């Protein structure tokens, strides 16, 4: 069978989708190529959140197509995912050497379409249709290409789509409407992963805190779920969201050590979720709250549904519930009409909250989104300048706070080799901070106490602790 190489752009959802596609292909007999240079099938799993990500994937495919045309005419080229969804056939019109364009609800058809193309039954395939139940079709895991018993952390998709319609965001158009998988189905997948050695599971979705508001039309795989009506009845427990009920169910899994989730919406941090942090021992003390802006005026224009005051209130509650909880965020700089005063409010909120980590994005005009046509689009230079100022502030705060952790003792889950220095190992604290230490592969998958000896930018260095 041919060898396949998948290059992924964008978020963890995309990483997870690629992993599931790769696992499906491996199950069909395909092998995974180490690089695009030796692969017989090259797939780019794309991201549309910002124009830069789209341009990178287009540029990459242009180069691949030129190389394939000249040197390897039998190589199959394909686009998967968000940009494939939003641009569809346009991609083949622009790059006629591309054989395959598969949208976000059709990942599970990749192997069939490749078989057709390789066997010469079809020339080119474009499939960006909606498909009922597609959210329950990506269950396979590759364990990162490592032997199945070696993977420590795993991602599980709990839902697809988004109904928030933030004015800057393309996701509702590329991922479709919200559809949640059932708790039974998700827990079964998590149990299987734990059985294969996973110690930490991250629950994934575009807005995980909206989990269970809109159910999967197919109610997932036959035989693994209760009926829709029974399930809805089960979830009608007053005062407890479906998401918290899912966390409770996953928390029960024997052998699982840690639970994380991403990406939530600040509005979704109700009292039940805040309280779950204090109550569920496996739920890690780490919360991602995408802020986007510190200005109420912009939050309204962005259609975010909360104010600065409410955002601060949620973080205060989380910190009261779990002192020391790691707080990360996403912030957009240069949203249309952002004044210096609006931006100062973002800076002041960053100073007040002291995020442990912040992902800063320069606003990017996205097709079909309301913000793309708003007046007051900012220049690239202005976005760049604000990006740098905010980055400097976030880094200064993180640097100061990471240094305060030197001398402390903390528990990490050892994930594997350090990415920057393969002579060392790395793990994460429950608050989601990376710790690098001198160790060996036998430590992989261990929960280990380390003493923090040094702090770099967003990285801690530790020694396996001699308990004091
Ligand atoms: N759950 C998240 C939320 O509450 O908004 C959504 C995740 S989104 C796919 C990841 C991040 O990309 C967003 O939080 C936002 O900061 C950024 N983003 C989305 N659209 C953008 C755009 N048009 N320009 C720049 N950044 C954008």
Description of the molecule:
The chain contains 14 helices and 19 strands. The termini are far apart. The longest helix is centred in the C-terminal third of the chain and has 24 residues, at 380-403. The strands form five sheets. A six-stranded parallel sheet has the order 2-1-3-4-5-6, sandwiched between helices. The protein has a five-stranded mixed beta barrel with strand order 15-16-17-19-18. 34% of the residues lie in helices and 20% in strands. Bound molecules: S-adenosylmethionine. Residues 11, 49-50, 166, 168-169, 171, 207, 263, 265, 290, 292, 330, 332, 361, 363-364, 366 line the site of S-adenosylmethionine.
Please name the defining characteristics of this protein.
468 residues, 19 strands, alpha/beta, globular, binds S-adenosylmethionine, 14 helices, six-stranded parallel β-sheet, single chain, five-stranded mixed β-barrel
From the structure provided, what is the oligomeric state, counting identical versus distinct chains? single chain
Tell me the Rg in angstroms.
Answer: 23 Å
Distance between the termini: 56 Å
Q: What small molecules does this complex bind?
A: S-adenosylmethionine
What number is the mean pLDDT?
92
Q: Proportion of β residues?
A: 15-25%
Low confidence ranges? 218-226
What is the strand and helix layout of this fold?
Blueprint: E1 3-8, H1 12-27, E2 31-32, E3 41-46, H2 51-71, E4 76-80, H3 81-87, H4 90-94, E5 100-102, H5 110-118, E6 125-127, E7 153-157, E8 159-160, H6 171-175, E9 179-180, H7 183-195, E10 200-204, H8 228-234, H9 242-251, E11 258-262, H10 271-279, E12 286-288, H11 296-302, H12 308-321, E13 326-333, H13 340-353, E14 357-362, H14 380-403, E15 409-417, E16 425-429, E17 434-437, E18 447-456, E19 459-464
Helix pairs in contact: 7-9, 10-12, 13-14
Bound molecules: S-adenosylmethionine (SAM).
